[in-house]
Amino acid sequence: MAPVTSTRRLLAGWGQTSPTVAEFVAATSESDVRATVEDAGPRGVLARGLGRSYGDSAQNGGGTVLDMTGLSRILSIDATTGEVTAEAGVSLDTLVRVLLPLGLFVPVLPGTRQVTLGGAIAADIHGKNHHVEGSFGNHVAAMDLLLADGSVRSLTPQTEPELFWATVGGMGLTGVVLRATLVAKPVESAYFLVDTERTRDLDDLMARLQANDDEYTYSVAWIDLVARGASTGRAVLTRGWSARADQLPRRLRSRPLHFAPRTRLTAPALFPSGLLNKATIAAFNEAFYRRAPREERGAVQGIGQFFHPLDAVANWNRVYGPRGFLQYQFVMPFGAEDAMRTAVERLSAAGTASFLAVLKRFGPGNPGLLSFPTPGWTLALDIPVTPELGRLLDDLDDLVLSAGGRLYLAKDSRTTAEALHRMYPRIDEWRRVRDRVDPHRVFTSDQAKRLSL
Amino acid sequence: MMDAVGDVQRVLVLGGTSEIGLAVLRRLAGRRRPAAVLAGRPTDRLDAVAAELRAEGHDVDLVHFDAEDRRTWAPAVEKAFAGGDVDVVVVAFGILGDAERAWQDPDDAAALATVNYTAPVTMGVDVAARLRTQGHGALVVLSSVAGQRPRRSNFAYGSTKAGLDAFYTGLREALRPEGIRVVVVRPGFVRTKMTQGMPAAPLAVDADRVAEAAVSGLRSGREVVWAPPPMRYVAFVLRLLPAPLFRRLPV
């Protein structure tokens, strides 16, 4: 077999914070993947998709990183069952575009469509519908996993539940997902009916979510973390459903499944970091809150507007400047509302400038051993890196731990192995499965080393 | 790997009893306790420092080398990296020497050049190769304002620091595409045991101030760090002064 060519490349997560150099191999076939895994040196190998995990999950300093985006064919679609089988490097953006005309929709969409199928499984991503429809792994019917010894195992939750649920949320450390079958859900249109409410403060927000969140398929709240005092935690809550064709206004009814996202703008490579400061962020947050209607029912929104406002700007991560930013996301169980309030108050008080902090209610988790979502409240926010940030977040980790919560691996870029292991009680179970299929830790990442996964 | 907020997991201090080197380690630690590899001569002082750091909660490995004995350099670097990835390497060893003997006694001059230049350059080459292999890492090297424009009073020392500074400034450029950072730290007069008994020069600082500047430079991506920061302007002026004027300065 011809050797697969590689280049040394500096790779970072979406937050741009801790780049490391690896041998970068652009795989275009299963045999490329197998050859790369078999040739992996002592520093191991990891599959990488579109690089949207924020921290160091998809980098492997000194080792090999497999670029999976060249394996992006859609292999089969069954329009009646909704089962779509595709190679792991296909993006959810492509899947949305291909499936919509058939009246099918990707069952779980995160805050961007620019993630791959393999990455979505590895991080067991979630979206606005988690509280009723679960996370990505819940909708995967089967996958082919290339193991450390080069063999390929076909996994389904029925036939190989252990390895399947160690791979869902397993951050690519059990093997390389080559192909997967996703069960898409039927939709009548590419639009959503959206209810918008402004809430006075955090208590008001959580009360509204507790009251009737389950009536909506999709639900998320944007919190203004700049607001202090009585308004601490004020939010804009948007919730909705996929629209039926007969619910659309007349002008959209002729092509209900039409989807044409706008041409993407690109943020400049050297965004002056001074533009993003407390004043501009406070102004942005104020405007975002004021612009939202106090209460609005049944507005019709497209996919981009409802799910992915930031996808319209490519490389929006650059606006945080060369020092980068991180995203902090945790979940705390129901009943820990006081701890959640404390967290929001601390973040507001610290004046950590943040765009778009979002709060959401999670529903039941799935059997994924390292899967993040568990029933409770999840808060996610972008924070530009500043000198005192490490200490603030270490303190928040303690708060999350004592509330029985956890951090999201796909976002983490700075917690400790000790804290992470305490947050994931099934991690030893996961390690046993991993050690069985990859005893020599061929699959590894900077994050895996940092957190002793 | 240095994480998103600048916390590290394993630090190598070449010159394991250096006050500035240890201050850098402690500044890097913050609330966490990275593992420390202390490299130095096998002395009671090194053992005492190790015990102190262990009491503070650090895992400590000791690696022995003698800056005057070339045969010990490469094995020390090898051993330091054998225990795992090193996130930050602090090059902190050096001697002041006897300024007058150092320009009159060939053995003194050679020893000063070996300890302050040849050893850190040779070890720097080894360290750089290992950082490239692991695909990440940073070097913090203790240069000196004395190397900016060597003065009559200690030009032999100044010349070693000038050479060291030039080497690591170049190494910084060579390693840049590899994502490996080199921070050159240029302190002025630092109150340490090395300078004990000497009259403190203007803008004198203590080791912790140097460490604070070095670590904040490391975290914010600066390439050269002056301690105290105004020292850069002093050095700038000193470099520009014509020799007849420079020689009359009382510093």
TrEMBL record, chain A:
One of its GO terms (molecular function) is FAD binding. The keyword Oxidoreductase applies. Pfam families: ALO, FAD_binding_4. PANTHER family: D-ARABINONO-1,4-LACTONE OXIDASE (PTHR43762:SF1), L-GULONOLACTONE OXIDASE (PTHR43762). PROSITE patterns: FAD_PCMH. This is Decaprenylphospho-beta-D-ribofuranose 2-oxidase. One of its GO terms (cellular component) is membrane. It comes from Geodermatophilus africanus. Residues 17-187 form the FAD-binding PCMH-type domain. It comes from the Bacteria. The keyword tRNA processing does not apply. Keywords: Oxidoreductase.
From TrEMBL, chain B:
One of its GO terms (molecular function) is oxidoreductase activity. Pfam families: adh_short (PF00106). It comes from the Bacteria. The keyword Oxidoreductase applies. Gene3D superfamilies: NAD(P)-binding Rossmann-like Domain. Belongs to the short-chain dehydrogenases/reductases (SDR) family. PANTHER family: 5-KETO-D-GLUCONATE 5-REDUCTASE, DECAPRENYLPHOSPHORYL-2-KETO-BETA-D-ERYTHRO-PENTOSE REDUCTASE. This is Decaprenylphospho-beta-D-erythro-pentofuranosid-2-ulose 2-reductase. It comes from Geodermatophilus africanus. The lineage of its organism: Bacteria, Bacillati, Actinomycetota, Actinomycetes, Geodermatophilales.
